[in-house]
Design a protein that fits this description.
14 helices, binds NADPH dihydro-nicotinamide-adenine-dinucleotide phosphate, six-stranded parallel beta sheet, single chain, binds the ligand N[C@@H](CC=O)C(=O)O, Rossmann fold, 3 domains, Dihydrodipicolinate Reductase, domain 2, alpha/beta
Length: 404
């Protein structure tokens, strides 16, 4: 039986998970592919760390050694940041290897150019693991894109921040204790700023935007806010009102323009994201024919992410890999755009709320919470007038449970 030789770049949470899964599923992979899959080499930063790697596998800190291997079919990239990951993948493509990446920061910026290069060299690019860990969002979108026009994508795309918010609420952990636990479980990025300040969800959103809408919005125009500003008191106060904080990423076409945001949002019990807890991610995709599809599952961690990489491995080897179909923005999509108009908001204010002479409708009010309906420009005005207050959009049907 012939073999597929794979190099894994990075042997952290993801790289090690891929290595272990290839070994634990050798027989199944052989059956599915009709070829043996073997790990030929592993690239790491520091060669001196103790690792459980078979001594027949080349372990190196020099990528050129990997490129010089006599036979190499697939390069799986699971290192951190844009460089040297991009350069390594370009070289791998030029050597006519299929590539698979989990690196969303690199792929959000350079995904299209890598795909172009891959096409020119007759190889495929797998990137399922860049978005939502083990949840097959990319494959699903590509299936839908055969005929549906995507209208909107919304969901929880960062496992670490969802885990932190859940732990703070249910187990009374402090922010830093919850973050530490997420790091120990392998959910958080090497620099967890990416997780807790919303960059990680932002990169994932940009990858989804390119698939769904054939382009990305101007990055500077996408509001991005993480979870570091949310206090334990705010989480508890919201819970008493029957609300939960979630870091929600959303992207849609509005009048021909791609509009996106990443920000902490409150959801009510009736909202589908209310019960998405811990490291779970959930992505809801709205297509013009199918309506709304929601996918849910583990958004980070060793085996869920390895699962996404291995599914890509099967696709690239079979040659039916998902090259993103860029669908240029066309006329007509505007008609389907959603006019956001008035939204529901919770204003949390330590001092007196200044709400006069702005078009808001106050639904209910307690000592330091105001539940109101207003549009985004009005909320901007209110933010300027109420420096100490925080404003969070509320999704789902709101029913005030108790006063706080
Ligand atoms: N953790 C997760 O749940 C998920 C992570 N991802 C993405 O996958 C990638 C890897 O994440 P993760 O495994 O968590 O990261 P880790 O920090 O756990 O591991 C990174 C690995 O990459 C190696 N490495 C880093 N820089 C270089 C370099 N310049 N040259 C060679 N090797 C290098 C490190 O080597 P050494 O061991 O010697 O330090 C380490 O083995 C990231 O891009 C991340 O965003 C995607 C989905 C889920
Ligand atoms: N750090 C990321 C890992 C997966 O993409 C997350 O927490 O979601």
């Amino acid at each position: 039986m012939s073999s597929i030789r794979v190099a894994i770049l990075g042997f952290g949470t993801v790289g090690e998970g891929v290595y272990k899964t290839i070994n634990s599923h050798k027989e199944k992979l052989s059956k599915v592919l009709g070829k043996r899959v073997e790990v030929a080499a592993v690239l790491v930063k520091s060669k001196n760390k103790n690792r459980e790697i078979d001594n027949r596998v080349l372990v190196t800190d020099d990528f050129e050694e990997i490129l010089n291997l006599e036979k190499l079919d697939v390069v799986v990239e699971a290192i951190v940041g844009q460089e040297p990951a991009l350069t390594y993948l370009q070289k791998a493509i030029q050597k006519e290897c299929h590539i698979i990446t989990a690196n969303k920061e690199m792929f959000a910026v350079h995904g299209s150019e890598l795909q172009k290069l891959a096409k020119e060299n007759g190889v495929s690019v797998g990137f399922e693991a860049t978005v939502a860990g083990g949840v097959p969002v990319i494959q699903t979108l590509q299936q839908l894109l055969n005929i549906n026009q995507i209208k909107k994508i919304e969901g929880i795309l960062n496992g670490t921040s969802n885990y932190i918010l859940s732990e703070m609420r249910t187990n009374d952990l402090s922010f830093s204790a919850a973050l530490q636990a997420a790091q120990e479980k392998g959910y958080a990025e090497a620099d967890p700023t990416n997780d807790v300040e919303g960059y990680d969800a932002f990169y994932k959103l940009m990858i989804l935007s390119e698939i769904a809408f054939g382009g990305k919005p101007e990055w500077a125009m996408v509001p991005r806010e993480g979870i570091t500003g949310i206090t334990e008191e705010q989480i508890k106060g919201a819970e008493k009102l029957g609300l939960r904080f979630k870091l929600i990423a959303s992207i849609q076409l509005v009048n021909g323009t791609i509009i996106g945001s990443v920000r902490p949002t409150l959801v009510t019990e009736t909202h589908p994201l209310f019960n998405i807890e811990g490291v779970e991610n959930s992505v809801s995709i709205e297509g013009d024919i199918v309506g709304r599809i929601t996918l849910q599952g583990p958004g980070a961690g060793m085996l869920p992410t390895a699962s996404a990489v291995i599914e890509d491995l099967i696709h690239v080897v079979r040659g039916n890999q998902n090259t993103v179909t860029l669908c240029p923005l066309s006329n007509g999509e505007d008609e389907r755009a959603e006019d956001k108009g008035n939204q529901n908001w919770l204003m949390i204010h330590p001092g007196e709320a200044q709400l006069t002479s702005v078009p808001v409708s106050v639904v209910t009010q307690t000592d330091n919470h105001v539940y109101l309906k207003a549009d985004e420009p009005t909320i901007s005005t209110l933010r300027k007038r109420n420096h100490q207050a925080s404003f969070f959009e509320v999704l789902g049907e709101f029913q005030l449970k108790k006063s706080v």
